[in-house]
Amino acid sequence: MRNRFRLAVLLALLSLAETPTLLAQEAPAPQQPASPFRGLFGPGPTDADRPQSLDVTASVFGAYDGNTYSEGAIPSLDPGLQVGGGFAVIEAGMAYARRGRHISFNLSGGGPYRYYSDRPELSGAAPWVSAALSGSLGPRTRFNVSQGVAYNPYYGFGVFPGLAASLSPGQLVVGSADYALYRRPSYTYTTTAGLDRSLSRRSSVSAIFTLRYVDFQQGGQSLTDQSIGAMYFHSMGQNLGLHAGYVYHRGDYGLLSLEGRVIQGHDINVGVDYNRALDRARRTTFGLGTGSTITVMPLQNYYNVLASAYLNRSLGRTWDVRFDYRRGLQFVEGFERPFFTDAVTLSTGGYVGPRCEVSGSVGYTGGGLGFGASAQGFGTLTGAGKVRVALARNVALFADYFYYHYLFDRGTLLPPGVPQGLDRNGIRAGVTVWVPLLQ
Prior knowledge:
Elements: H1 2-16, E1 52-68, E2 85-99, E3 103-115, E4 124-125, E5 128-136, E6 141-156, E7 180-198, E8 203-216, E9 223-235, E10 240-253, E11 262-277, E12 284-296, E13 301-315, E14 319-330, E15 339-351, E16 356-369, E17 376-390, E18 395-408, E19 421-438
Antiparallel strand pairs: 1-2, 1-19, 2-3, 3-4, 3-5, 5-6, 6-7, 7-8, 8-9, 9-10, 10-11, 11-12, 12-13, 13-14, 14-15, 15-16, 16-17, 17-18, 18-19
């Protein structure tokens, strides 16, 4: 695991020679390079200014997954989706937005349907819907609230959504079927709320609330993951800032009446935020944030350092390379103990000619399941690449490839049906269509 972690960091440095938290001001997403063909793959930059929009998307593609168990791993008694094979997917989505002077409303939904000709019992749809309201309560105050619900017919152990970049209001995080291990239906309910208040030109205060509830339909423990907190920010200049605040986390595994299942986290965030351009053209930017957390377990408390960092480099007019690092506490459905993880991600994307978009990423997440002497190690390694070629502004062909690997230490107590380790390669190819119904 240590060698894989070092390799991921080394690859990132050579290429570069980046649950939302209030750890520090989130590392800003890089400004996307201008597309040579504006609106090539959906709405263009000017479409965001439309007072009202209604967009429909649809994709049809074939897919193949090749799965193997890691050396020494014990296969699940019910392998289900862990067996490699081909399948077909039909995916559709719709997004409505109404933008007023002070208030904006978004409503979106959709989902894929996977069809397995040789194992129809594994076929299933994963629909989701999300609504969001955002706007201003005056010249210095902004707010956002969102609610989403998603149905997933499969259970899978994959990426950690809490280590991803901040979500835009109304965006819903759901488990990707690409990480599915077996059929186990569940509903995921997600609620977010945020309030930002500018106190002066240099100072501001923010408050957040997030709630994620995963309800399994066929046995197993549900999960309630919630956070609430507030943070004060003060700018010391163009590149340096200070922050101080507190965030309370709570993870409830199973029924609330079961003793020992409630895990609490207290983020005591007093630290620095550092963001600066490393060159005059501002093509290279760097940011760093720090904090700390106390995790309250049934028998003992644990102290850990929190951190986030990013390094972003723009290459030419249309290419961008970004490296991210995040360290924090994660609650994962199906597991009865929390994870404390370190995650690194290297991503890049841009255009090859006016009609071809290429993107790719590689990431590593490592750490422990549980804390102290009883903690058990694990590691995940992911890689993905995508190519899209536009036939017109509304139609594009695409091909995706992804690689996924995870491995737990021997003797780790895992949820039923989850093997100790798994390697998965997958490829998808098809066509996607975007139709704006309101111009």
